[in-house]
């Protein structure tokens, strides 16, 4: 099998080199390789002695993938992953190309792979994962994914390709229903059906109630309308029906309190907010499933406390004598939970929206009350963003559609009282800004 990979890898690496010389990474080499060898992903990952685990969800995939890879690596495994969020088939193939040797060897023990939900069936059919986590179902990219019900059905089909443990968010009404159906199938057949070992993570009810907008999960209206008990979909009642293995017990700033089985502890995460704490308990649960009896909670905790933040997700960057924090607004859920994570109004704010965000109307559903003032409104859709801010009563100083110039002007200006310049950016503008600040480590084609 490795011999068949050699000419394909050679072609792919030449394409990668050409793409780099042209000015950055690209998913194009992966696209070409998959045209030449449609089963390239399956052939390459078949070499992994301990198989593959996958990370799915509307939001939080990159952060959770980073956490799981760090935890598993801290236990002594060599981990292949797609750390740049290249989560479509061509992106996964490009990530593999970057790590395969010219002899076709993939020198890793296990894969931790982020997967886009729209391509999840195709990718998971190739990866044949032995475990996976589905983080949430949220309103996300309506022009591409349509309604949350459709995304939930995607996850249900993807689950049939996970041949071991499925880790689910007990607080999510769509995933709670999915897990219950999987458990029911296993009970009816009275056999350990592949993919039906369901394990749960959650947020303690009192923590969830205290969060301004909870986890910003999509509502399962169909389940609510057919429930005989109106409280049947309350997270506390759902949690009572099945044991939650890992639970967030507190979340303040970057500090997370948690319970794993009977173990209670706390850890300082690299990024703040309830959403990062949720990703952390999901990562702990999936890592235990991946490592089995070799999993050590103290090792997992040390890994979480020492990890670098996933790119653009609350990432702190030092620029000269300044500190820049990049906050992502990929969707309503990601923006809202990032805003909820601020303990006080951010200083020296740049907000930028890109033309690739085809339908920006979701911004009108966001609660922007924590943002009191914006220094620069930027990006190709800056005028739309400025109108939204004014509608919310948020003032701004200047509008400049060139985000690089806007960021440079802020960095050249006075140091903010908190010492941190806050850049609230959508995905494409985030890539542009990171590249401007000297970070050229992203593949194109991620979702």
Task: Describe the structure concisely for a colleague.
This protein has 447 residues and is α/β, with parallel strands linked by helices.
What's the layout of helices and strands?
Elements (H helix, E strand, L loop, with lengths): L1 H22 L4 H9 L3 H6 L6 E5 L4 H14 L4 E3 L7 H11 L10 E5 L5 H8 L3 E4 L7 H4 L2 H12 L5 E5 L3 H17 L7 E7 L1 H6 L10 H6 L8 H7 L2 E9 L2 E6 L2 E6 L5 H18 L5 H10 L8 E5 L2 E7 L3 H9 L8 E4 L20 E6 L3 H10 L3 E6 L2 H10 L7 E6 L1 H10 L11
Parallel strand pairs: 1-3, 1-4, 2-3, 4-5, 5-6, 6-7, 11-15, 12-13, 12-15, 13-14
Antiparallel strand pairs: 7-8, 8-9, 10-11
Helix pairs in contact: 1-2, 2-5, 4-13, 4-14, 6-8
3D structure, described in words:
The chain folds into 2 domains: 2-306, 3-Layer(aba) Sandwich (UDP-N-acetylmuramoyl-L-alanine:D-glutamate ligase), CATH 3.40.1190.10; 315-436, Protein-Tyrosine Phosphatase, Chain A. The chain is an alpha/beta fold and 447 residues long. β10 and β11 form a beta hairpin. Mean pLDDT is 89; it is low at 443-447. It has a 9-stranded mixed sheet with strand order 2-3-1-4-5-6-7-8-9, sandwiched between helices. The protein contains 18 helices and 15 strands.
C-alpha geometry: globular
CATH architecture of the largest domain: 3-Layer(aba) Sandwich
The average pLDDT score comes to 89
Work out the helicity level: 40-55%
Largest sheet: 9 strands, mixed
CA-atom Rg in angstroms: 22 Å
Strand order of the largest sheet: 2-3-1-4-5-6-7-8-9
Strand content: 15-25%
Sequence stretches where pLDDT stays below 50 over 5 or more residues: 443-447
CATH class of the largest domain: Alpha Beta
- Given the helix and strand composition, which structural class is it? alpha/beta
Q: Please tally the β strands and state the result.
A: 15
Distance between the termini: 30 Å
* CATH H-level superfamily of the largest domain: Mur-like, catalytic domain
Work out the oligomeric state of the chains in this entry. single chain
Q: What is the tally of helical segments?
A: 18
Can you tell me the CATH topology of the largest domain?
Answer: UDP-N-acetylmuramoyl-L-alanine:D-glutamate ligase
């Amino acid at each position: 099998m490795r011999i068949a990979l050699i000419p394909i890898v050679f072609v792919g690496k030449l394409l990668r080199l050409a793409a780099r010389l042209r000015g950055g990474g690209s998913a194009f080499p992966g696209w070409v390789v998959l045209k030449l060898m449609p089963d390239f992903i399956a052939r390459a990952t078949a070499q992994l002695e301990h198989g593959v685990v996958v990370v799915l969800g509307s939001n939080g995939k990159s952060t959770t993938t980073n956490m799981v890879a760090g935890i598993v690596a801290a236990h002594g495994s060599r981990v292949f992953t797609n750390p740049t969020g290249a989560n479509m088939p061509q992106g996964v193939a490009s990530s593999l190309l970057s790590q395969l040797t010219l002899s076709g060897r993939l020198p890793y023990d296990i894969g931790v792979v982020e997967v886009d939900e729209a391509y999840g069936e195709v990718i998971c059919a190739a990866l044949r994962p032995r475990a996976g986590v589905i983080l949430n179902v949220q309103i996300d990219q309506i022009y591409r994914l349509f309604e949350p019900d459709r995304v939930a059905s995607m996850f249900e089909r993807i689950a049939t390709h996970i041949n071991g443990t499925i880790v689910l968010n007990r607080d999510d009404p769509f995933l709670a229903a999915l897990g219950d159906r999987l458990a029911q199938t296993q009970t009816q057949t009275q056999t350990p059906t592949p993919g039906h070992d369901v394990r749960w993570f959650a947020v303690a009810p009192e923590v969830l109630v205290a969060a301004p907008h909870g986890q910003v999960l999509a509502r399962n209206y169909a389940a609510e309308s057919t429930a005989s008990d109106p409280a049947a979909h309350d997270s506390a009642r759902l949690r009572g029906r099945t044991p939650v293995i890992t639970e967030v017990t507190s979340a303040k700033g970057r500090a997370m309190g948690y319970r794993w089985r009977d173990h209670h502890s706390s850890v300082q995460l690299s990024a703040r907010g309830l959403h990062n704490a949720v990703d952390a308990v999901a990562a702990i649960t999936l890592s235990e499933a991946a490592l089995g009896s070799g999993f050590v909670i103290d090792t997992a905790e040390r890994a979480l406390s020492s990890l670098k933040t996933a790119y653009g997700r609350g990432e702190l960057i030092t620029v000269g004598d300044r500190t820049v924090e990049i906050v992502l607004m990929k969707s309503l859920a990601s923006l809202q939970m990032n805003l909820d994570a601020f303990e006080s109004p951010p200083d020296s704010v740049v907000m930028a929206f890109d033309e690739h965000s085809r339908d920006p109307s979701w911004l009108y559903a966001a609660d922007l009350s924590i943002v009191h003032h914006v220094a620069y409104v930027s990006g190709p859709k800056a005028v739309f963003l400025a109108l939204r801010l004014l509608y919310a009563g948020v003032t701004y100083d200047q509008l400049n559609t060139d985000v690089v110039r806007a960021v440079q002007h802020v960095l050249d200006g006075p140091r903010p009282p908190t010492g941190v310049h806050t850049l609230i950016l959508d995905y494409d503008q985030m890539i542009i800004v990171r590249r401007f600040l000297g970070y050229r480590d992203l593949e194109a084609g991620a979702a």
